[in-house]
């Protein structure tokens, strides 16, 4: 809308002898209840006009209408000048911009971004929380790529530590040689089964020790199982061949399972980092920080940083015995990632329970003088709840990602068959359609909400062909494809004699696609794209119900409406693709 801004600057000069800057011109999209497409807020201009906001609006409106052929009319509501642009303006936008081959495509901007997401533990399967993480990370990466960034999708796998040893020890004690092949259980589920079993047996031992008079804390420390797990961790760190062999075997089971789940979720990665390779990193950074006076040693030899002046606490960065804590490892991994890729921005997709940790991590790196620390960003997201309640992993009641995907496909099957939307489909095509609809419902439901918000996920509500859902948008795309297969497009550029409001509103929305991608990329927020695509689907359906396409009054109008339908379908497909969602050609 730069041409309107320039005209308002010119109007202020001509009417009020005021030297207005473009930044002082406040343009907004006109609210739906008022006529017009662009609104100028006039309150701040009264200091130049020395008139009321309404009078100022009328002055400027008359000036614009007289000076500009694209202004069809205006109305003033209090301090808001609502401007209606001409049909010829919108047709020009449609034919020259929206229908251009490169519409919504950005040139490379020379900037590199790493998006780190998933970050699973290798002692259990992926669960609902991981699903939101993976879908969010993948979508943000895809949006950034579309906006012209070079993107590296990274996964930091937590493949070491006491929790991993718990699964290993339980399998050693109770597994009787069971494997994914012999049991028919998916690898990550099998390992998760032993993690739950460890916890069950550990609790039994704690209860037995409490009966013998030990306190809860003493019993937790003295239970034989936890001592054995701690001993196994020491052996792992010492490179014990037998322990390392078992660790590699069980991890290979988990990775095979993860790979299958990632494929079903439709996410992938360019780079994997493993904590088993990175947990010793960071000690050099601690030495560097001590030399610079950023860290200090306490009498027991432990190393700390005092962040109280920054409104945070004192933070331990190295234990007295010289062993790493999480922050040590994260400092080293951050340096490793930068050394590997020299990216301009590094995004960590991690739940909001880690907000404090990332504040501390980024602040320490800034204090260490790392030039790249300003480019670190924590994409914090809220928990996902189900109607049945919060997930708990150690009790084995976790909402498993694979079970959730199965449930989504079954729900999609049930709803689709009820509505009779699979006539003429082969069995293979039906299964593919159920997967596309089920995953579309899941992804859209999780991505349409601002990442920072906690959300309640209801599988049944998500698979609704009429609501604010993925299947509604997918069905709209299939409807468009159905219309287009019935008629052939011809490259007419004249357009109809006049536009109906529903046609103009759709062109206006479509024209905002590049801006929407840009906003979503800058804000790291797929919800901006999700809600935009929903608005397109709603606007198309309104247009479709109000105006005949195939029985249009003349050939020029028919061809225009077919082109408008094709453009809507293209934007829906691209927009949903940015969310990692497929759209079917027919339903």
**How would you sum up the global shape?**
globular
Radius of gyration (CA) equals: 30 Å
> What is the strand tally?
14
Q: What percent strand?
A: 5-15%
Q: What profile does the largest beta sheet have?
A: 5 strands, parallel
Q: Which fold name fills CATH's third level, the topology of the domain at 401-578?
A: Isoleucyl-tRNA Synthetase, Domain 1
| Oligomeric nature of the chains | single chain
Spans of at least 5 consecutive residues with low confidence: 390-396
List keywords for this structure.
587 residues; alpha/beta; Gyrase A, domain 2; Isoleucyl-tRNA Synthetase, Domain 1; five-stranded parallel beta sheet; four-stranded antiparallel beta sheet; 23 helices; 55% helix; globular
Concise synopsis of the structure shown:
The protein is of the alpha/beta class. The chain has helices at residues 2-16, 46-49, 53-67, 87-98, 128-146, 162-174, 180-183, 187-211, 216-222, 224-237, 241-265, 275-278, 283-292, 326-341, 355-367, 401-418, 427-447, 459-462, 470-486, 501-511, 513-523, 526-546, 555-578; strands at residues 27-29, 38-41, 71-77, 80-85, 112-116, 150-157, 271-274, 296-297, 303-306, 314-318, 345-351, 376-381, 384-385, 455-456. The strands form 4 sheets. It has a 5-stranded parallel beta sheet with strand order 7-6-5-11-12, sandwiched between helices.
Task: Give your account of this protein's structure.
It is a single chain. The chain has 587 residues and is an alpha/beta fold. Among the domains are: 2-85, Arginyl tRNA synthetase N-terminal domain (Gyrase A, domain 2, 2-Layer Sandwich), CATH 3.30.1360.70; 161-268, no CATH class; 401-578, Isoleucyl-tRNA Synthetase, Domain 1, CATH 1.10.730.10. It is built from 23 helices and 14 strands. It has helices at 2-16, 46-49, 53-67, 87-98, 128-146, 162-174, 180-183, 187-211, 216-222, 224-237, 241-265, 275-278, 283-292, 326-341, 355-367, 401-418, 427-447, 459-462, 470-486, 501-511, 513-523, 526-546, 555-578; strands spanning 27-29, 38-41, 71-77, 80-85, 112-116, 150-157, 271-274, 296-297, 303-306, 314-318, 345-351, 376-381, 384-385, 455-456. Helix 5 (128-146) links the parallel strand 5 and strand 6 (150-157). Mean pLDDT is 94; it is low at 390-396.
